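re: ur question from earlier - yeah i can do the single chain one, its not a big deal. heres the input i used so u can compare w yours
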Amino acid sequence: MSAASSWRLITGATGLALVLSACAGADSTDNAGVRGAPGSEWWAYGGDVFGSRYSRLDEVDRSNVRQLTVAWRYETGEADPGFATREEPTLEATPIVVEGIMYLSTPLGRVIALDADTGEELWVHDARIDRFESYGDFASRGVSIWVDPALVAAASTGSGRVDPSTRSTSGCDRRIFAATIDARLIALDAADGRPCQDFGGSGQIDLRRGLRIAPFEYPAYQVTSPPLVVGDLVITGSAIADNSRRAPASGEVRAFDVRTGQLRWSWDPIPQTPLDPAFETWQEGSPALTGSANVWSVMTADPQRGLVFAPTSSPAPDYYGGLRKGAGRYGNSIVALDAQTGKVVWDFQTVHHDLWDYDNASPPALVTLRRSGEPDGGPQAEIEIPAVLQATKTGMLFVLHRETGEALFEVEERPVPASDVPGEETWPTQPFTAAIHPLSPHQVTPEDAFGVTEEEREACREILGALRNEGIFTPPSLQGTLVMPSTIGGAHWGGLTFDPVRQIAVVPVNRHAAMVQLIPAEGFSRDSAEAESGRLGLGYEYNIMVGTPYAMRRRSLRSPSGIPCTPPPFGALVAVSLATGERLWETPLGRMPVGDSETLRLLPDNAGSINLGGPIATAGGLVFIASTDDPALRAFDIDTGEELWKAELPAIGQATPMTYRGPSGRQYVVIAAAGGGSHGEGDYLVAFALPRR
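and the output i got, formated as tokens:
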């Protein structure tokens, strides 16, 4: 089926519509809030609750982007010795801007408000996390805001009056919600950062309580993504140490009342009742005994249709599924939930019986696609189709109907290799996007091995040739398996951006391989294995996978000098037409850090970089992205992929930028930049703008 013929208009129940709160606009391109022209603010992680990451601001465009300069810079101070930690945290926050105030969170549990025009600090709330715990992913990617609908109504009528009977007892009619790395949900007054005392217990909720399976240890259950605010609900997922054992913790998605913190509903991605149609896809009683399948990425919502979109991850443990046989429906899926009840409306599984840590790591983007059609209006009439875009670690871009989950571009189930590990039963097929070609290669052979010298290339040939390698979805093995794309992706947690005018999706991807190997658990010693790996400079990561017959080791596949064994570009930015499904352009993204290595200096200029962090698009015809291992923010022409502008950052920018119009009328582009050692020093927000006129 061709890309064009795979389109069809699908109708269906829209579900119960919610009252649209101030945290969302009228559609996926409208970031309008209480004040400010539509699109001038940045209300949520992805710009709005739809997550398209598109701004209608066009003051900065292709003709003047080269004039962007630093307007202000704010340093959190958390890189200073006074904020010593056990693990190295990373500032990955995407700030939000509402009514001229910027709000952001830090990995150390601090929520900060800044003047959006100057970067001046207005207030700081410190949640006082234990900085010396061992957090697996020591990051916090942002906060969310709720504004009392009575304020919105007063603003829209111009009366400025709010019925006192509707006011919160604690004030707090604008609330900043933050989820800390130690799994607390906190409600703060946006005016001054004080806890909203009527929410939960003195302004916070312990998210580790009330789970089906309690975390096996304190740091095994965390939250790294901002909560989702929709209507009168604040909704949270979780980040779980999912490769440690069969049941590290359960991964419920939960909705709380924004005013009181009362639990309104809870949804477990692992079905717990035979009445659930997904229950039969989990065999041998595994639903009651299995954890994870959690949502650690950012959720998005369609308030008008009353839907919340949850991108789920792998059930535990990641690399051995012998104790959770079956397709494992709802795991590794895009699940549309009824926002009022938490009940499943539809689900689409991107990986069956995951054995590769192919979580749905990036936020779903809710967009409106335009196609010509032939309804009563005639052949020139245009059809608008509500869609969900999901880029995956497998390097595939799934395009689904927002109301039904049906694929809008053809998806095929194709046979994949079987496991040779005793006790394992791989699922025989996996979904592949047939009309939109993978954005990242699905196989690399020893003949493809890359090296800037013959010695480097020969070393990579030997590494690749020793592994089981039958292309993507080759299961983990006792021999050792080549995983392509690697566990970081393909497309990764950085997600994508969508230009609704041009109907173009832009996705950052990695083209990088890893290996994973299962080791019989009997007689295995993690300490001795790690010591041996360190002595030989192999860089293996080990996990015991408690309660299973196997331990696991994995590593990135690189040459002795640290260069990926896969052909460049190692990272790229790819544009896809959502009118046809064709790839419009791709361009290498970034450059590997040169450091002091003569070998690295031999890399070609178009080698690209491993990247983590997302893009945004603007009406100025631009795509902004940092994300690479070289500390820079870049702007690309969305029509051609040409790099138009690059600004050096004080540290790497492994975050998603954002843009807004400040009270002064200037358009700003802001990125978090943080690092240590070769990645630069400090924890900064850097704001760029055109020179003042």
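Residues 454-465 form the longest helix (12 residues). not sure if urs matches, ping me
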